[in-house]
Amino acid sequence: MSFNFSDFQLQATKALDHLVEEIGQLRTGKATVQLMDPVSVEAYGTRMKLNEVAAVSAPDPNLILISPWDKSLLGAIEKGINTANLNLNPVVDGQIIRVVVPSLTEERRKDMVKMLHQKLESGRVVLRSVRTDTKRDIDHQKGQPGVSEDAVEYDLAELDIQLKEYLVKIDDLGQRKEQELLKI
User: Fold this and answer.
1) Closest of 117, 126, 128, 116 to residue 14, by C-alpha
2) How many CB atoms within 10 Å of residue 110?
3) What is the C-alpha R_g of the chain?
4) Per-residue pLDDT averaged across 132-156, rounded?
5) Fewer C-beta within 10 Å: the chain N or C terminus?
6) What is the arithmetic mean of pLDDT over 127-142?
7) 3-58 pLDDT, tens per residue?
8) Which of 12, 42, 6 is nearest to 125 (CA)?
9) Are 73 and 43 in contact (CB under 8 A)?
10) CA 14, 15, 16 angle in degrees (round to 5)?
């Protein structure tokens, strides 16, 4: 009887997806729609994500345009961007909001790389935690009817192989993002 790794894979994939989201929010000096993901807006008596109340686009590398579907939300959107701590300055221009994304200085790029490495390490820690939980489940099989010592050893080896695959994905993500951050 072989161990079912679907729970491990599900949790590891969720951790990887969360890491991708976190890394996507690191500013590279280039305007992207994802920069606005952390922005929430007070609208209609509740907090809503920016993309739920407006169209967000990045027509060029230094500009993000936000066009609210309800023009009465212009002030709330501007406030939401300011309170999201993105170090960006929104400018209300008639019916739209313009957000100029300044180029990053060399020092700021290095700070972003440090933040990237912290986020990558957090992702690795989460994966190791998922591995520990799964290893415990595999170890609990010892001595159960129909489960041999060899099967347990095989499952532990398979767990390590799968963990390494996810760690390689994290390293690849990190390398790509670091190149993106350091690109001038």
Assistant:
1) 126
2) 13
3) 22
4) 89
5) C
6) 93
7) 889 999 999 999 999 998 888 777 677 778 888 888 889 888 899 998 889 999 98
8) 12
9) yes
10) 90
* Cα–Cα distance list, 62 to 58, 74, 166 (Å): 8, 21, 34
pLDDT-derived band of residue 126, with 50, 70 and 90 as boundaries? very high
User: Where would I find the beta strands (DSSP E) of 44-163?
Assistant: 46-49, 54-60, 63-68, 90-93, 96-100
**Domains assigned to the chain:** 6-24+105-182 (1.10.132.20), 33-100 (3.30.1360.40)
Q: Are 45 and 54 in contact (CB under 8 A)?
A: no
Amino acid residing at 2: S
CA distances from 29 to 49, 103, 180, 182 (A): 23, 5, 9, 10
